[in-house]
Specification:
Largest sheet of chain B: none
Radius of gyration of chain B: 18 Å
Distance between the termini of chain A: 73 Å
Number of domains of chain B: 2
Low-confidence stretches of chain B: none
Number of helices of chain B: 7
Mean pLDDT of chain B: 97
Order of helices and strands of chain B: HHHHHHH
Helix content of chain B: 40-55%
Oligomer: heterodimer
Number of domains of chain A: 2
Shape of chain A: elongated
Low-confidence stretches of chain A: none
Number of strands of chain A: 20
Helix content of chain A: 40-55%
Strand content of chain A: 5-15%
Largest sheet of chain A: 7 strands, mixed
């Protein structure tokens, strides 16, 4: 007996993009378990004489470096007893209860241990997690961050992309380097581009600490989010840090005016081999607890670069959302991932995104690739330049603010060119290798760095070293811009210097408005307390997010074309015919009158001629009438059939839909329905005419072969609606049908 | 007028007169015109320890004790140059320093008026000793 053949459908699915990814069962010993791991400790906090003696399953003598740091800086013992005594379920319900304010939850979180936090968040289902995240976000308005990089490290292209990102409303822009020595040039291009696009946008250049401090002290960058923390001691040590070293570094950055955000995320401990048998969510709970204890204002979490690993295990997407919730609960700003590529499958990727997109986070992505992902040197590009229309459309669909503004093509080209010109001017003023006009042109309108002219990279890195050696700072950049006539950009760069001096943006979840006003969780806190409160996408902002460049005015569509010559002449009221070979061709109220072509663009005159020819070819005698009382194709056809000597009629709606009907049938029944009007040609209409005649003459008739396009409805339903509205508008209630003649 | 950490944020907008550069230039004098006239110096374009302490007050008043402590440590660190900062950071990395070396850093920080950071280093020393994160002598 031979093996049964495999299923062709299984084979087709096995070849899909989704199946390029490996899904695995949980394996808790390796940390391959999303949440609620069997070896996760039970929440525990024992305080004796003001000293913590047990924490989450460990005695003080066994505390690792993370436990010790949390005991020293993380736990607020003044609230711990009260908070830890609350049952898990009670806390979980408080997280989703709109009547429990954020402040109260944040107060309690100060006294909760990592195991308690993880267990409570682990109780929530996805919709509850979204509700909790919506409530707990630190800043009132959601925002977004962009990645700005390119493979050639082209300064003109970096500046143009930065400007577009700023103009599109991103609050922060992050770049990095392929070659470390490029850092000052990339930071410079980002500063100039960002301030050209929209004053106040903050920038960072993800590089090694010494370089980063140097860029910060020069005023070339304003934030950093490269401080990684991990949930187990061995992984922390492998990362060559401890909570104390990372917390010190955070203060060092802040002393240089750098807004500091840590990085953590589920999956990193498993990936690095030391998850110690714990679930991803529990370890991430330890991470975000460290972040707050270290005095950072926020965290980028949501698995970040390990996202594909977390999605490989059951419940991964939910665990990632839960970790965002934990960070927000701990009163941290959250840049919620969605930057690294999470899946090959667009469906799966977007399903995951909704967890952050719908509730809104301080930064919905911690790096939306404003350029094509082929230029994303972070290895990111989960969403990229080519996806912007989709992102904007989903914002419009859900009436949700995902932090990206629609901008018309002309305006995008304008800011891109202005930024490329500005960086060209700064390079010239500072004696850097020149940026050519050709580079400016391609940076303005090209698709990716593949289109960019090559630069002398050796000369660029040499100039970058020299730039640092000369001590060039943001002040020099402002003066260079000013001398070359980019006064408004120079003002914006000086504005950023003022921000560094006032340091307001070091507060939690701070972003800077174009007029220099800093908005953070201090002066613009999220106070969501249910419907009607908190941030709502309404008013001018909603108007803006509706007005996508490719949205059209329906009033401009489906208007009568220029043709004015009549195609039919109207005669007297129609009467019932007595010719047994007669086929009535019954036209809709607007056919060949208010409307002049089908949805497929066929002129009504030609459609009519094709039908009449078809009827005659098959031996029938066509008679033209117009049905005035109804716009529905079934009634048009049935009214026609009642008038027909043979009892057969072909009804034609203006948009091209047709029905062959017989007088003795119920109106909503039919002999043949031709509902795929977008696909019909004149030959189709001729075939319909032939078939109608066939029925009239009592022949055996095979149905007209029709094609099927299941996307036709998605593509054309708006136009269908508009055309039908005009047909319906031409209806004269109760009016009898009238005889027509084809105009000569 | 006394500083009110609840109502005076953002400082740059609400209390600009309280904000100066390290050399004493008032925030509102940091303008493009001043730059054109050569009245601004790049190394002066930064927050002072005093400003960071005001921000720490703002954070504390908003219920963010750890952020406030971090900003207070940052205020102390404004007096250190980049090399010193990175040297302390490196010393705090795992298994880089002996107990004596960390104690030496703490003492130096104390001498630089960075008492909070000194205490922070000593606290790390205690934890590292328990967790074998000190360098071999």
């Amino acid at each position: 007996m031979s093996e049964p053949a495999g299923s062709a459908r299984f084979a087709a699915r096995a070849g899909s993009d989704l199946r390029r990814e490996l899904l695995v069962e949980s394996w808790p010993e390796l940390g391959l378990v999303a949440a609620n791991g069997p070896a996760d400790p039970s929440p525990e906090l024992v305080v004796v004489d003001g000293a913590v003696t047990r924490l989450d399953g460990r005695a003080a003598a066994d505390f690792d470096v993370i436990d010790r740091f949390l005991v020293a800086h993380g736990l607020d013992l003044a609230v711990a007893e009260e908070a830890m005594a609350l049952p898990d379920e009670r806390l979980a319900r408080m997280l989703v209860d709109v009547d429990v304010p954020r402040d109260e939850l944040v107060r309690l979180a100060r006294g909760l241990t990592p195991a308690k936090l993880a267990r409570v968040a682990g109780m929530l289902d996805p919709v509850e997690l979204m509700m909790a995240l919506k409530k707990l976000r630190a800043r009132r308005d959601p925002g977004n961050q962009a990645h700005v990089t390119n493979l050639k490290e082209s300064p003109a292209l970096l500046a143009a992309d930065a400007a577009e990102a700023a103009r599109r409303g991103f609050d922060e822009l992050e770049t990095t380097v392929g070659v470390a020595r490029y850092a000052p040039l990339n930071a410079l291009a980002l500063l100039v581009g960002s301030q050209t696009g929209r004053p106040g946008v903050m920038t960072q250049c993800a590089v090694e600490e010494r370089r980063n401090l140097e860029l910060a002290i020069r005023g070339l960058v304003t934030y950093a989010e490269t401080l990684s923390v991990y949930g187990t001691e061995p992984v922390f040590a492998d990362g060559d840090d401890t909570p104390w070293s990372k917390a010190f570094l955070a203060s060092a950055y802040a002393s240089r005016g750098v807004k500091v955000r840590f990085t953590s995320g589920t999956g990193s401990e498993a990936l690095m081999g030391f998850a110690q048998g714990h679930s991803m969510l529990y370890l991430e709970s330890r991470c975000v607890s460290i972040v707050r204890a270290a005095g950072a204002q926020g965290v980028q979490n949501g698995s970040i670069s390990c996202v594909a690993l977390v999605l490989a295990v059951p419940g991964g997407t939910r665990a990632i959302l839960a970790e965002n919730v934990l960070a927000a609960w701990l009163d941290l700003e959250v840049a919620s991932g969605n930057d690294a590529i999470s899946s090959h499958s667009a469906i799966r990727k977007t399903a995951k995104l909704m967890g952050q997109f719908l509730p809104g986070t301080d930064f919905v992505t911690s790096g939306y690739s404003v350029m094509p992902r082929s230029d994303n040197t972070f290895g990111g590009g989960n969403y990229d330049a080519d996806d912007i229309d989709e992102w904007l459309t989903i914002q419009r669909d859900w009436q949700v603010d995902g932090g990206i503004d629609p901008v018309a093509e002309g305006e995008v080209l304008r800011v891109r060119e202005r930024a490329a010109r500005a960086v060209q001017a700064v390079f010239a003023e500072l004696g850097l290798p020149s940026v050519t006009d050709a580079e400016v042109a391609v940076a303005t309108s090209g698709h990716s760095s593949r289109d960019m002219p090559d630069r002398d990279r050796a000369a660029d890195v040499e100039a970058a070293d020299e730039l640092l050696a000369r001590g060039v700072s943001a002040l020099d950049v402002a003066l260079a811009l000013d001398r070359r006539g980019f006064v408004e950009v120079a003002e914006a760069v000086v504005g950023m210097l003022r921000q560094r001096i006032a340091a307001d943006y070091l507060q939690t979840a701070a972003v800077i408005e174009p007029d220099g006003l800093v908005r953070s969780a201090v002066n613009d806190p999220n106070a969501y307390l249910g419907p009607g409160t908190g941030y709502r996408l309404e008013g001018e902002r909603w108007e803006l997010l509706q007005a996508l460049p490719h949205v059209v005015d329906p009033r401009q569509l489906a208007s009568t074309n220029g043709e004015i010559r009549a195609i039919v002449d109207t005669h007297e009221t129609a009467r019932r015919g007595d010719d047994a070979t007669e086929v009535v061709v019954a036209l809709g109220p607007a056919f060949g009158d208010e409307l002049r072509e089908t949805i497929n663009g066929l002129p009504h005159g030609e459609v009519l001629d094709a039908v009449l020819e078809g009827v005659r070819e098959a031996g029938g005698s066509p008679r033209l009438v117009r049905i005035r009382r109804a716009a529905d194709v079934a009634f048009i056809a049935h009214d026609g059939a009642v008038l027909s000597g043979s009892g057969i009629a072909l009804g034609l709606q203006s948009k091209g839909t047709a029905v062959i009907h017989r007088a003795d049938l119920q109106p909503l029944d039919n002999l043949e329905l031709f509902g795929m009007s977008p696909l019909y040609t004149l030959e189709s209409y001729r075939a319909m005419g032939r078939n109608a005649a066939g029925y009239a003459l009592g022949r055996r008739v095979g149905p007209v072969p029709t094609e099927l396009d299941n996307f036709a409805r998605a593509k054309l339903i708006v136009l269908t609606t508009l055309l039908h509205a005009r047909e319906a508008a031409a209806v004269v209630p109760g009016a009898p049908a009238v005889e027509l003649a084809r105009s000569s | 007028m006394a500083f009110d950490p609840v109502t005076d944020y953002p400082l740059g907008r609400r209390r600009p007169e309280l904000v100066r550069t390290p050399s004493g230039t008032p925030l509102e004098a940091v303008t493009l015109d001043a730059a054109r006239e050569g009245r601004l110096v790049a190394s002066d374009m930064r927050a002072t320890a005093e400003t960071l302490r005001l921000q720490a007050e703002v954070a504390r008043a908003a219920g963010r004790a750890q952020l406030a402590e971090g900003l207070e440590r940052a205020a102390e660190l404004t007096g250190l140059d980049d090399d010193e900062l990175l040297a302390v950071y490196t010393a705090l990395r795992p298994s880089r320093s002996t107990a004596a070396e960390l104690e030496e850093w703490a003492a130096r920080l104390d001498n630089r008026g960075a008492g909070r950071n000194a205490a922070f280093v000593r606290e790390a020393l205690g934890a590292y000793r328990e967790r074998s994160l000190l360098a071999d002598v």
